[in-house]
Design brief:
The protein is of the alpha/beta class and about 240 residues long. It has helices at about 10, 25-30, 50-60, 75-85, 90-110, 120-125, 160-185, 195-205, 220-235; strands spanning about 1-5, 35-40, 65-70, 140-145, 190-195. It has a single domain, classed as 3-Layer(aba) Sandwich (Rossmann fold), CATH 3.40.50. It is built from nine helices and five strands.
Length: about 240
């Protein structure tokens, strides 16, 4: 099974500085599963529009059985900065653009047509999708929930924004799944994987410092948790066998 991992620093994990180009996090853990070929396409600091741009630039010419996406916390950070500066309309517009990029990405990963018109921001992304260059896609999609811990305590101010971003992601996936059923009634749709509850359970068992040092980035224990969540999702969708 060929799996592309897209997203931000949670996925990246310094993969460009490791010999196998897989990094030191959950992607590396999953690459050790029998039958899995992993590609780490994460980049520190990425938002959903960044992920869409990198997909088009680097990976759209290839075919993947599954694409796993871990993204959203940097979108939260941008919105939080805009809100703190009193730029509430810009914050709302940025959230709309981020979700439009996610929606476009879902459709490009599965070779389906989006009924909703892309935002002007997504249309202006400087790496256009090229049908002549792109492969024929029908990837299964796993989208990992963005997570956050109040370290430092000020990060707790991000929690309402995080919840709004999560709800928008879930609504986008639900809408996509309804539309995708029209194209393929027997398809395994995009799946949203909750992460916060599982990480909270680990923090309850071992203490928060065992999971994260800064509220966003995970320790090895946290990455093993993400790897298990993804592995379980792949198994439940019969993409992997145990």
């Amino acid at each position: 099974m060929n799996i592309l991992f897209l997203g931000d620093s949670i996925t990246d994990c310094d993969h460009s500085f490791t010999k196998d180009n897989l990094g030191n996090g959950y992607v590396k853990n999953l690459s050790l599963l029998p039958g899995v070929t992993a590609v780490n396409g994460g980049t520190d600091g990425f938002t959903f529009p960044d992920v869409l741009r990198k997909w088009r630039l680097m990976y759209a010419r290839n075919v993947y059985d599954c694409v796993a996406i871990t993204c959203g916390i940097n979108d939260v950070a941008v919105i939080a900065d805009l809100e703190a500066a009193g730029r509430h309309e810009d914050a709302s517009a940025f959230l709309e653009d981020s979700i439009a990029a996610l929606r476009t990405l879902l459709h490009e990963l599965t070779g389906t047509t989006c009924a909703k018109k892309s935002s002007a921001y997504v249309q202006a992304l400087n790496i256009p999708a090229s049908p002549s260059d792109s492969a024929s896609h029908d990837s299964k999609i796993l989208l990992l929930e963005p997570f956050l811990f109040p370290i430092p305590q000020a990060r707790a101010l991000w929690l309402p924004i995080l919840q709004e971003v999560r709800e928008c992601i879930q609504e986008t996936i639900a809408d996509f799944n309804k539309g995708y059923a029209v194209h393929n009634a027997s398809a395994l749709f995009a799946r949203y994987i909750p992460t916060q509850a599982a990480l909270d359970d680990l923090a309850g068992q071992f203490g928060l410092p065992a999971i994260t040092a800064d509220g966003v980035h995970l320790t090895g224990v946290g990455h093993k948790c993400l790897a298990k969540l993804v592995s379980d999702a792949l198994t439940s969708r019969k993409l992997l066998t145990k």
